[in-house]
Amino acid sequence: MTSETRNRRFYKVKPETRNRRCYRYCAAASVAMFVYIAHSCLRMSLDVIPSMLYYEARIHPQNDKYATCSGRRRSHVAKPTNETKVTAENRARFVREGLYENIGKGSGSYHVAGVVLHTMSQVQHSKLGIFGTVGEIGVHHGRFTSFLYMTAQETEPLIAVDLFEALQDENVDMSGMGSLKRFVESLSLYGLGESDVQTFTTSSLDLDVEGSSWLADKPGIRLLSVDGGHTAEITRNDLRLAFCNLLPGGIVVLDDWFNPPWPGVVEGFFQFANLDNHIGLNDHAASAAAAAEPQVVYPFLLCENKLYLTNDREAHDLFLQTILNDPFLGQWVSMYAKVGHIRARSWPYFMVNGTRYVRCRTKTELPLANHTRAVWLERLETTSDAETAIKKAALAPPRNST
């Protein structure tokens, strides 16, 4: 049947009949669309609502141990030592051969992270005299974790917290896909084994703020990366865990700061900074204390989507000046937000929570990976030579007095 014949037959039908048919067709299509939408909503609710209820119950636990912090672990420092957790040979090989490229990473690029962590850890050890626990919440496969562990001294415990494969149903925002098997395999690339790290396959929401369940008899935290769930609630929770147990002058590295896909990280940070700095107070008292002293959390560096924080003003100033005066890092950071309509001498400082910080330049301005690797390797070797000299001096027999 041609289209002309079909149209002729259609228009021979009475208008009333033709309208009734159109109404029936439209009604049938509307019902089908309604059923489809209702079915989709039902499926989504069955998947999401139980997770949300479970999630809310975890975010707002009734047990007081999750809500208060005495800060007692902040004074528990590890014994100073010149022995490193990873040997000098393994550190050099790991960097020289670029073995960290074999470890799966989460989000972002790590061009200068190794140099930054090594330099800041040297300041902590030699100038601030703090030694403590090193670890990460949300290790994924362990690339950034390896940079953290490379800075650890022999007496500094190593920890790792992740959902890994076993608990991915609790990964409410799908912000990562950790693998315990691959994480353990990554340790061997720089000479560590599974027994060298205490691994927790759990949600960070199950960790108590006091650290009794995950730090136990360990010293306070010297260096911790927060890269777990990226919702505001989980970010706030993880910052509470970190800062409650952070040694004075310790460093917390917050991942995905101002990363557009994860706005919850920024929201959770400011919730913590404005209310939770005075842990142990109720919300009203905490708000009043935060209003009187808002900048208890001190950011000093934003680099490759990671915000470096400390809890001590003097340590903040020391870290900041160390970066600015460093012959390598100093040329890749900026103190000023370059705004087009403001004169060059009037550019505003980078500020977060009332505190000045410096920012790494964009990816196109960052140094080439090979150049960064050479600088990192040179600093590791210099540190190793200094450690060897100290060990030899300690083992040398005392001179006979004349």
Order of helices and strands: HHHHEHEHEEHEHHEEHEEEEH
Mean pLDDT over all positions: 79
Q: Over all CA atoms, what is the radius of gyration? A: 28 Å
Report on the biggest sheet.
9 strands, mixed
Helix content: 40-55%
Which structural category fits the helices and strands? Answer: alpha/beta
Rough outline:
elongated
Quick one: how many beta strands?
A: 11
How is this fold's topology laid out?
Layout: H1 3-12, H2 15-59, H3 88-96, H4 113-128, E1 133-137, H5 143-149, E2 158-162, H6 180-187, E3 198-201, E4 221-226, H7 232-244, E5 246-255, H8 263-275, H9 283-292, E6 298-303, E7 306-310, H10 313-325, E8 333-334, E9 351-352, E10 355-356, E11 358-360, H11 369-395
Helix pairs in contact: 3-11, 4-10, 4-11, 7-8
Task: Offer a concise description of the structure.
This protein is of the alpha/beta class. It is 43% helix and 12% strand.
